[in-house]
């Protein structure tokens, strides 16, 4: 259960950060443009219409991770999360060969991609653990 709580906690933290940004705050950047460039590597809106659905998504993912040991629908959501994290981690590795002078480059290299890989490892483990328990039960 510890890894479930860790993964769910990461999503709850991400939801809280997105809710914070929905208030118009831009920490840890000075302004929305700087925040966008640091977080995404390009200029996009961090307005409530963008970040509130992302906060809701992270809360849904946290709930699915916590329920993945007991619900096939939650396991399906976690499998989708694994697919998304795999894609993001792969892109993060590609972006590691980008412009080294940007904040996004270093945040991607040292924070975003390693965090995606860690969550991916945990989520794959959650799916495999459930499968292993089912196989033991069937034997």
Task: Describe this entry's structure for a reader.
The chain is mainly alpha-helical. The protein has one domain (2-138). It has 5 helices and no strands. It has helices at 2-22, 32-40, 48-67, 72-95, 103-138. Helix 4 packs antiparallel against helix 5 (103-138). The longest helix has 36 residues, at 103-138. It is globular, with a radius of gyration of 17 Å. 22% of the residues are buried. The model has no long low-confidence stretch (mean pLDDT 93).
Outline of the structure:
The protein has one domain.
Defining key terms:
139 residues
Question: What is the rounded Rg?
Answer: 17 Å
Q: Which bin fits the share of residues in helices?
A: over 70%
Q: Summarize the biggest pleated sheet.
A: none
**Structural class by helix and strand composition:** mainly alpha
Rough outline: globular
Low-confidence segments: none
Average pLDDT rating: 93
Seen as an oligomer or otherwise, the chain set is single chain
Number of beta strands: 0
Order of helices and strands: HHHHH
Report how far apart the termini are.
24 Å
Total of helices? 5
Write the layout of secondary structure elements.
Layout: H1 2-22, H2 32-40, H3 48-67, H4 72-95, H5 103-138
